[in-house]
Amino acid sequence: MIGFSLSHDELLCDGASLTAIAEAVGTPVYVYSSAVMRARYRELDEAFADHPHAIHYALKANSTLAIARLLRGLGSGADANSIWEIEVARRAGFVPADIVFTGVGKSLPELECAVALGVKAINVESSGELARVEAIADRTGAVARVAIRLNPDIDARSHPHISTGLKVNKFGVALGEAAALFASLDHRKALELVAIHVHVGSQITSVEPIQRSAALVARVAAALKQLGRRLEYLDVGGGFGISYDGGEVPTLTDYAAAILGELRGIDLPIVLEPGRSLVGPAGALVARVIDLKRRDGSSEFAVIDAGMTELMRPALYNAFHRIEPVQPRSRPERQYEVVGPVCESTDVVGRDRRLPRLEVGDLVAIRDAGAYGSAMASNYNRRPMPPEVLVDDGAWRIIRRRQTLDDLLAMES
Ligand code: LLP
Fold first, then answer.
1. Model confidence over 259-295: pLDDT tens digits?
2. Contacts of residue 195, Cβ cutoff 8 Å, sequence gap at least 6
């Protein structure tokens, strides 16, 4: 069995015992399945097999070196959102030609570094940014490879905090302005327009917004071709949703069909920037119950040793993550409000969850935490970042050790 599965009343990851990992490494701890990441990557790659494509894993989802390396080993490129993610990508073995540089606010030093490296593309977000890239390229005698990120004014219908495609959102260039930018490129010799880019949001759970943005990219590419401007590829972004609650969401094949259906007749390769869909289901955050508090007329509180500092998604987006006992003994069920130890009432990991009666010391697994989990962890309350463990074929190893207070204080005087 790959991924997280029950065997003899115990939750395993790729055959490794979560109890044994928690005992050896302590809790809270992130545990990842290599097999699930590989399977998701292959599934996505096969879904797009009918069209030349390159997968650029969005490092923001989880850029722990070993995970970046694993994806590179599968043939992935990278989507980096800061100069620091570019550097992590390089240390994980990606070469600049494998890296697209995305993000709405790139500082001058970041742009200078990206131009000097010669990344596959700087995905430009505004006319001002394009001018800054041009000035840097001019000054250094480089020709900067750029993609223009379009703001298609498409509603991703995801959580408003992670929807990026509407004109009220800060992302991309409006279509009218993009047309003017394209026209201006004829005499801007330090810039090479290699692609157009869209990304309308994350955790998109219907194919329609993705299909509409692919249609728009296809239309713009065709119009540019008419004008004699040949692109190298089309960057259709990421955003494919996963099922957090076990309910149905489109498969990677459904998303691929929606995109490829719109690209018929377009003879350009595509770039994809998936993050969550590759690593989200591959991770669980394993935590221990440290207190139980009864209250009248409502769920009992189960206080665990992980909260919004380790996994911010429930507090920030009211996101749902399944919570499962690591050893689901046959005890009667009770209803719990599973909360973290942080000094805020928003620090709730799961509301009104029915779980076999918990006892202090029990382990729980918070599922589908491979994406935007450890990557968004913080040191609030001076809590050290949790360690991360990668399981491969039943064997596990620590890929990031637990942070210590000395690590934290080393930066202070
Ligand atoms: N490309 C661009 C330009 C992006 O901004 C993002 C995500 C991706 C690709 C990857 O999207 P994915 O395939 O992972 O959906 N912290 C939030 C998610 C923020 C996503 C930000 N951008 C969460 O925990 O749900």
1. 999 999 899 999 999 999 999 999 999 999 999 999 8
2. 121, 123, 147, 148, 231, 232, 233, 234, 235, 271
| Structural domains of the chain, with CATH | 4-32+281-409 (2.40.37.10), 35-278 (3.20.20.10)
- DSSP strand E in 170-306: where? 173-174, 191-197, 233-235, 270-272, 283-293, 300-304
The CB of 372 under 6 Å from ligand 1? The reply is yes
- 85 and 63 Cβ atoms separated by less than 8 Å: yes
**CB-based burial of residue 166 (10 Å sphere; 0-12 exposed, 13-18 middle, 19+ buried)?**
middle
Per-residue H/E/C for 1-32: CCCEEEECCEEEECCEEHHHHHHHHCCCEEEE
**Weakest mean pLDDT among 27-41, 168-182, 223-237, 298-312:** 168-182
Could you confirm whether 113 is annotated as catalytic? Answer: no
* Residue 239 CA, closest ligand 1 atom number: 15
Query: Rounded to an integer, what distance in angstroms lies between the CA atom of residue 217 and that of residue 270?
Result: 11
Tell me if 233 CB under 6 Å of ligand 1: no
Cis peptide preceding 28, ω within 30 of 0: yes
CA distances from 383 to 72, 303, 406 (A): 31, 16, 12
Cα dihedral 184, 190, 196, 197 sign: negative
Whether 163 has a pLDDT exceeding 80, the answer reads no
Side-chain half-sphere exposure of 72, counting CA atoms within 13 A: 22
Both structure tokens of 152: 């298609």
The structure tokens 């800054």 sit at 132
Residue among 202, 276, 277, 316 whose CB has most ligand 1 atoms within 8 A, to mutate: 202
Q: Is 275 in the pocket of ligand 1 (CB under 6 A)?
A: yes
Q: What pLDDT was estimated at residue 297?
A: 83
pLDDT at 292: 98
pLDDT exceeds cutoff 80 at 243:
yes
What value does the mean pLDDT take over residues 67-76?
98
Burial class (CB in 10 A: 0-12, 13-18, 19+), 63: buried
